[in-house]
Amino acid sequence: MQASKSRRASRPLPHLDLGDGPALLLMQGFALQPRTYLDLAERLAERCRVIIPALFAEPGGTWSPQRVLDDVEATLDHLGVEQVSVLGHSFGGALQLDFAVRNVERVTELVFVDTLAMSREWTLAYEALHPVHLLWMATPRAAIDFATSVVTHPLCLARAGWWGFRSDRRDHVSALARTDIPRHVLWADRDSLLSRADGASFARDMGAGFTVVHGSEQPVDHDWLYRHPQLAFEYLQGLDLVALRGAAGAGSMPAAAR
């Protein structure tokens, strides 16, 4: 299933590119930046190539899911990536869902992390409507990245939030459920932002595995993917992802954001 492309010419997004080997595309949460996930990406880059595009950096506030996904595809084309595993966190999971439906032949596997990608109308924007809660949970780096996005791209974030407000992803979930792409959902054991029941329902409707993530010493919350990078790496390894089966890329350093 292929969605129609927007008329405006696509262009590569600013991005981080770490490691070598099978490609893994990471799509970040609302208003976060590629560097927010750097600690996790450096661990993953020991096993694969990690690409993190800046999803909320459209110039001039012209954000739309179609434009962003056009540019994500252009980024992958620019980097010479044909097949890709996709990891989406929170708000990024909704974009991940659309990307997969648009690129069924290109996607190797999917991991959704604490996301309401199948949100019935309004609830996908819950993350965008609770910036105080997000900042309370954030690491110092994530808080700085969030604030930077708000200051530098306020119109993009407003448009992204509005898309979340009016989005209903059920048709995309149904379309993805009919594909052969391996699908996994990971969920924090104490997500204080999103309901575990909604996550389980999303996984069930999509025909995906559902795994609850537990911390060894304390509960993990919505931000665990970047707050607890070693835990995230271990859970991702446990899924036996195609992207993480090789050892290429050990010791690689991140390329500068371009």
CATH architecture: 3-Layer(aba) Sandwich
How widely separated are the two ends?
31 Å
Structural class: alpha/beta
CATH fold descriptor: Rossmann fold
Runs in which pLDDT lies below 50 for 5 or more consecutive residues are 1-6, 119-125, 248-258
For the biggest β-sheet, the strand order reads: 1-3-2-4-5-6-7
Shape: globular
The beta-strand count equals 7
Helical proportion, percent range: 25-40%
Order of helices and strands: EEHEHEHEHHHHEHEHH
List keywords for this structure.
single chain; 258 residues; alpha/beta; Rossmann fold; 38% helix; disordered N terminus; disordered C terminus
Write the layout of secondary structure elements.
Layout: E1 15-18, E2 23-27, H1 38-44, E3 49-53, H2 65-78, E4 84-89, H3 92-102, E5 107-113, H4 131-137, H5 140-152, H6 154-166, H7 170-177, E6 183-188, H8 196-206, E7 209-213, H9 224-227, H10 229-238
Parallel strand pairs: 2-3, 2-4, 4-5, 5-6, 6-7
Antiparallel strand pairs: 1-3
Helix pairs in contact: 1-10, 3-7
Describe this structure in words.
The chain is of the alpha/beta class. Helix content is 38%, strand content 15%. The protein is built from ten helices and seven strands. The protein has helices at residues 38-44, 65-78, 92-102, 131-137, 140-152, 154-166, 170-177, 196-206, 224-227, 229-238, and strands at 15-18, 23-27, 49-53, 84-89, 107-113, 183-188, 209-213. It has a seven-stranded mixed beta sheet, with helices on both faces. The chain is globular. 51% of the residues are buried. The model is unreliable at 1-6, 119-125 and 248-258 (pLDDT under 50).
